[in-house]
Automatic annotation (TrEMBL):
Domain RNA polymerase sigma-70 region span(s) in chain numbering: 101-145
InterPro entries: RNA_pol_sigma70_r4, RNA_pol_sigma_r3/r4-like, WH-like_DNA-bd_sf
TM region(s), chain numbering: none
Name of the protein this chain belongs to: RNA polymerase sigma-70 region 4 domain-containing protein
Superkingdom per UniProt: Bacteria
One Pfam assignment: Sigma70_r4
Length: 166
């Protein structure tokens, strides 16, 4: 290997390390929201992010001025969408996730994260997902209604503790 190529590899690795140090936390948070896992226990989100970062590193030299964050985010969302479409119904039983978006379907989580967390416009979200803009708007509104719904209040206890109502 010629010295010039070795220098390019070192430069590439340093640039990528700096990128991951700066954007890794936000990307992990995005992946955690998509998978609806708790923040402290998120193996699926970490795996999803690892795949997206590996893909970004593989084509790092071909980005040519493109924002690496956008590239990683786009692959992260595409990979999540494809895996839920492909394996969603056939996945083995998993304990229910405890993340803030756990009550939403994968499509609702994806659209909500794209629109609100990442700030992607309706038109671009619709184009990326191959859906009509009206569908994206409807799914987002439905997801927001679920997220903003107040938590059910516990039923009041009848009588004193330890007594059975007759």
């Amino acid at each position: 290997m010629r010295p010039r190529h070795a220098y390019d590899d070192v430069r590439r690795a340093q640039e990528f390390r700096a990128y991951v140090a700066g954007a890794g936390g936000r990307l992990l948070h995005t992946a955690t929201l998509l998978t609806a896992e708790p923040r402290d226990a998120n193996p699926r989100a970490q795996r999803l992010l690892t795949l997206a970062l590996a893909r970004t590193y593989a084509c790092w030299d071909r980005l040519h001025g493109e924002d690496p964050y956008d590239h990683t985010r786009r692959y992260l969302m595409t990979r999540f969408a494809l895996s839920t479409l492909r394996y969603g119904a056939r996945l083995p039983f998993r304990p229910p996730p405890g993340g803030p978006l756990a009550e939403l379907s994968p499509q609702e989580r994806l659209i909500l994260v794209m629109r609100l967390h990442e700030g992607i416009g309706e038109d671009q979200t619709a184009a990326l997902l191959g859906l009509p803009v009206e569908r994206v708007r409807a799914v987002q509104n439905r997801a927001m209604a679920v997220v903003l719904r107040p938590a059910p209040k516990p039923a009041p206890l009848m009588g004193r503790a330890g007594t059975v109502p007759s």
